[in-house]
Amino acid sequence: MIVLEFKLKGKPQQYRVIDEMIRTAQFVRNKALRYWIDNQGVKLLDLYKQCAIMAKEFEWAGKLNSMARQAMAQRAIFAIQRFFSNCKAKKPGKKGYPQFKKHTRSVEYKTSGWKLSTDKRCLTFTDGFAAGTFKLLGSRDLHFYSPKEIKRVRVIRRADGYYTQFCINVERTEEAIPTGKAIGIDVGLNHFYTDSNGETMTNPRHLRKTEKALKRLQKRVSRKKKGSNNRKGAINRLGRKHLKVSRQRKDFAIKTALCVVKSSDFVAYEDLQVKNMVKNHKLAKSISDAAWSQFAQWLQYFGKVYGKTVVAVAPQYTSQNCSSCGNRVQKSLSVRTHICSCGTVLDRDHNAALNILAKGLKQSGIILNTVGHTGINAWGQTDLYSLVVTSTGKLTD
User: Fold this and answer.
1) Rounded to two decimals, what is the model's pTM?
2) Is 349 one of the annotated active-site residues of the chain?
3) For this structure, is 270 an active site residue?
């Protein structure tokens, strides 16, 4: 499944209709959740029936396409299922009890309620709201996909306009040239990451660089009268600035993950519990700005696309253990150099990256610095040939 996003270009009155569609979708989702609260044990089919009842009871709700109403009922049931799975798994802390939505920003259609033009450059909504035809602005081309492959059309309102996402039922695969390299990655705040070869990637700190402008815009919002048009304009400008920061962060994560995956056949990284780490109020902003979880998600995605092996390893003691002898050298976060009694002197993050690589190789069944052992190769195949990983991170037969 791939997602292609385009910006919708239309008239102001058309955008107001989209706002009505989104508010209606929010109403349907909240009503479905209320029905579940009042009638414990209901299933998705029961919520579908409630959607049909809502369409008859509320005329304006009936304007929304039937499949769009069902999609909002699915959102409610997914929240319910996630709550029960967290309870069953005894997840610590809050279990995520389903909440009523107050600021929904999207509405989702399935295979009806919309229509593409012949040249696939315009999108028309055909349900009761009759939002009309919008031009699709974007760099991607829908000509490569048939309308039958488009399973969902999602309309999203953002600070800088309205967008539509096409969820297309195709698998993305890319040809990759084997490099014979294995790499371990340790993420951090001083450097975005340090690999097992000792190379580092600079931490861009997008939020920190924009923080002064964000504070100024936030101050302007606070000074405006509540409910005034000037306040709405100030809120929009603040939202655009936040949107720019989030896009910069996402763009950096995608490009960095792509370079890492294409340059190596085997990638090991830390499976960090970022949700617990941000509880440290002194480092929470910097950790959130680094977007380690987003980077890890793109590593996994590109690993599947390019057929590479990407492994997440437990982060325990990767910084404390010596990568040469295995002895544990206790050190605080302020100590940035690893010094062991065996004579090993390394940067703290470089030492951790070497330990992460060793853990990842062991977890995948590849033997480190041992000849004649059969393991898995960098393409995820088993028992094809013997591998050896040298100290430089090279995979050889």
Assistant:
1) 0.83
2) yes
3) yes
